Amino acid sequence: MILKKLLLILTLLLIPSITLAGELTGNLNLLSGYKYMDEGDWDPVEDQTEFGVSLDFKKPNWPVSIALEILYSDEKARVSDRVIPDIGTFPTYVDVDINEYALGIRKNISLQHNINVFFGGGVTIIRVRVGYENIFFAGGPGGRSSSSVTDQDVEPNFNELLGDDDSTFGFWVSAGLYVTLAEHYNIGIQTRWSKADVTLFDEDADAGGLHGLLFVGYHW
């Protein structure tokens, strides 16, 4: 938790100093797309909507750029229905959201016609939160029917909400292509893969996955 906060503070401190430093070049991009995780661990929320911000910068004599990325993804799905006689049917939902804080290096290569490609990788901190909710009951823990961290039996309980969270270190790699228009404006795509094992409800799961992202941003 402390290292995650330090990385976030470092990012916020670096952005204004980098953009004001004329001797540095770099890119600041906004990301949007999807993250695809292991179905065996995360069904039915294995495909998540994702967005984030990516920053890379370097001096002219550096062979590679420093890369920082902050990503957020989430998904919510209906997992069961509880029928209460003479009252009605109450659906139960699982809600999973994931934060990823990544630090690494990136190699940008300029091609013809303002086309650029890049690849890189590094380390990441991933935090996962899993929660269950019911429009009538708070979810209390029941017996588990499988090894999936999202497949928990939820019993009615007015005093306890079933949920868990975990943070862990992992690693990531990525590659992409983008066009820079009018010397400053980026439009591109990025493929990314990350891996970090978390423990939720006493079960291990990979909180990383395959990321497919579009981005727009600014080059200086």
Question: Overview of this structure, please?
Answer:
- This protein is 10% helix and 67% strand.
- It has 2 helices and 12 strands; from the N terminus they run αβαβββββββββββ.
- It has a single domain, classed as Porin.
- It has helices at residues 2-20, 39-42, and strands at residues 25-36, 47-58, 65-84, 88-110, 115-134, 139-144, 152-156, 163-181, 185-195, 197-200, 203-206, 209-219.
- Mean pLDDT is 83; it is low at 138-146.
- It is mainly beta and 220 residues long.
- The longest helix is centred in the N-terminal third of the chain and has 19 residues, at 2-20.
- The strands form 3 sheets. Strands 1-2-3-4-5-8-9-12 form an 8-stranded antiparallel beta barrel. Strands 6-7 form a two-stranded antiparallel sheet.
- Strand 8 and strand 9 form a beta hairpin.
